[in-house]
Amino acid sequence: MPARPPADSSPLGQALAGGQRLREPAVPQVPGTVPVLTRANRQWPAEPDPQAARVVAALRRELPSGSVRADLQELARYASDAAGLRPGAPPAAVVLPETTAEVQAAMRIASALRVPVVVRGAGSGLSGAVIAPPGGIVLSTERLTRLIEIRPEDELAVVEAGVITGDLDRAAAAHGLRYAPDPASADFSTIGGNVAMNAGGLRCCKYGVTRESVLALDVVLADGTLMTVGHRTIKGVTGLDLVGLFVGSEGTLGVVVTVTVRLRPLPVATETMVAFADSLGDVGAAVQAITRSRVQPSAVELLDESSLRSIDENRGTDLAARGRAMLLLQTDGHGATAEMDELESVVAAAGVSVQRLVGEEADRMVELRRSGRGSKKDTWRIGEDVAVPRSRLVEMIAAMEGIGARYGVEVGCVAHAGDGNLHIGLSAAMRPGEAEPPAAVHAAADAVVRAALDLGGTITGEHGVGALKRPWLERELGTRQLQLQRSVKAAFDPLGILAPDSFLATV
Amino acid sequence: MPARPPADSSPLGQALAGGQRLREPAVPQVPGTVPVLTRANRQWPAEPDPQAARVVAALRRELPSGSVRADLQELARYASDAAGLRPGAPPAAVVLPETTAEVQAAMRIASALRVPVVVRGAGSGLSGAVIAPPGGIVLSTERLTRLIEIRPEDELAVVEAGVITGDLDRAAAAHGLRYAPDPASADFSTIGGNVAMNAGGLRCCKYGVTRESVLALDVVLADGTLMTVGHRTIKGVTGLDLVGLFVGSEGTLGVVVTVTVRLRPLPVATETMVAFADSLGDVGAAVQAITRSRVQPSAVELLDESSLRSIDENRGTDLAARGRAMLLLQTDGHGATAEMDELESVVAAAGVSVQRLVGEEADRMVELRRSGRGSKKDTWRIGEDVAVPRSRLVEMIAAMEGIGARYGVEVGCVAHAGDGNLHIGLSAAMRPGEAEPPAAVHAAADAVVRAALDLGGTITGEHGVGALKRPWLERELGTRQLQLQRSVKAAFDPLGILAPDSFLATV
């Protein structure tokens, strides 16, 4: 595996490293225990914490010196994820274990000292699930990067949690296989992070999300016990499905150290098509026509006008001139051409202009979808990640546009239309001297999430709850289910030391 | 939905109804609390149980009279599943709720009186997960048969738990859709039962097992609370995945009353091929060649010589004359023909003779695979359901044959070779006057399960643990994981009234 740069690109990391202007992503009010730093209060207390010194000493007694970091710059670098929420006081230590045994030692110490622990992959998460617990431990899996085995004859791979997802996929490709889930972050997020968040991606409408590709996990429990859950077999129904429970649990149940994933054959062919629609109604008709077809596409991506403009501004393309919204469709496998022929016919019949793309042209369009949009200078921005039943997609976009107009906030979205998952951006110009995003952006974000719930949807399709979505969690799950989920967590972590400010936090 | 006959085909039900000779399926020794009836002791105590009368009275106060049954014939009819394990004393009552509210009322009464409850679908399970608790309640979902909605535009259906799986599939077909999992029991098992056991089937190697097709559940908890878990959306990561936890939980966590399933497009084409091999080694080479191909077949079924002979004897075919083992392959979708062309080429290259089948010939071969084998007269038989990594399939069959020779027991198998799941039959002739299967059959079954574990496999691929597989459960999960699973159950059912003799039983 190639070495990766340390995950120091968080706003706080950048700010502390270079003293540059801090543009923290706007966040709704979080009712948790983490005192969130604001621009007005972004210095950590200068006084060292005596309890923190005890934690560091205990860790250093049991772990190699290179595995325990406690200088302030390192603590800052690992204090948050890409959501930019930061704790008001530093953690005691960052632990960078190189082996499962080191993870177990760290957890035994944390349990003995009743110290909170947050597990961290690449820190690329967008929901604030990784915020360093003040006085606690950040346990980063970034040095657990062994690719333990690839077994083409069983179509599976066993890798350590810190392996970059794209590296796993490339290693599989050498055997004619692939790791099917393809989060946009695949080139820098880790498989352990993907498991923690149950990451999605473009191909998930055909191949399922992370959960559908995880067969087994080695996990270290809060007390340091190492346990294997799941099977090396494709099928297996022995006992409760603890693999499914760990996937998406956001680090609340244990530390995933090894992941056994299912691999799938690389498709023999992939077909790509774009379609441009003049109205939202036309896009909706095209998406419904795709659903009614007998085709299971491998990608159905929708970009609205705002997203097309953003790509045009950033990359010099002319997509927005071609329609009010764009669909990017892919099919793959032995039937790819026949499938795309059928999609071309049903989408065209819905009154939308279509164009088949091949070779570099197709690759470029996919790349533009994945990373073509730039972030605007001097702009506050909140990114939402809701999902609705596919048939409500157009209603959701219309609701989003109404909310934008009502609050005077610019809105735009890209959607994994094949599974009803919308990434909605809400932004407003930054005014001189403004220290926080204007209330209207927060209010619009709140309205967007509520609209998704009202349409039978969910508050997060693939980014996770983390700290950012906690204000809406109980509204979706209900009080009793939230209590039940907390009881389940308590079965794994009776001391409550893992991810104490997670979505399952009780305070 | 067409009405279904009551589930009275269990060995005990038949025995009690018709007084015919009781041939109970042989069972390994079960260390649970259920006193299992033997041939020597198959009469229930004649004395009525006063506590049972209180339970029945409480139920009759709250539920319509037709929903509570307590006569001995009804109690016997619902006392067990198709595994044939029977309790030594009758349950107090069978509850046949027609509505979710009745399920809630029954569970409130059970909680108030601390009475154990076993939830029952069609009673077609093969693992002994449904054994009536003596003095307790059998809650049958067979009258919860409403098909609440089918939404083609969202590719989902919402049905009550008692709907027969095949009926759901046929209702979906009217919209060009299907419910992909296809357990062999689809024409008589219920979707609720499939959810409880995480049922598999032939198509699961391409489309996944029940878990991959369940989006949301309405469940009644042990205390009568109604709760919805999961989403109507294809994607959703809000909170712990309680849907995945309920699927395969064998009735230990709550009563599933409504199931929201994902539907998939009916494939435009299906291709079928059979291949006959002269040796186990050739079959193994063919299966490996299929795995190495770029094709994801929709069925890869393997029948060994013993299974072919059984079909021949039962149906007058001549399959066993054509080879020592048969593979039955299907591909489906737009690429079905191209995919089967590739499979034909790689399987033939492995030295195995192939034949493409079309139309009725193909349908007949699939039907023979599903239900062509008869049960021999005057024979004791234990059926096992293990899974191993695909690459170990031939080793598992060789081990099975060695075990058969060692214990003087006839062995045979059919396997879902596409996911390494083997159904192994172990049988021995019944001797005059013999009341129990000979010890050699039990010992051989034990050796088969241990062989699967030694090959990196699991004790049950799709039938579930139930009572039959409990003796091996801890060996697979380990003591700590079993404790953890029990703690998770306790979070849902603190009184421990649900499925008290399940795989999570503590005594």
Automatic annotation (TrEMBL), chains A, B:
Keywords, ordered alphabetically: FAD, Flavoprotein, Oxidoreductase
Protein name from the UniProt record: FAD-linked oxidase C-terminal domain-containing protein
Needed cofactors: FAD
FAD-binding PCMH-type domain residues: 87-266
Residue ranges, annotated region (Disordered): 1-33
UniProt keyword annotation of S-adenosyl-L-methionine present: no
SUPFAM superfamilies hit by this protein: FAD-binding/transporter-associated domain-like, FAD-linked oxidases, C-terminal domain
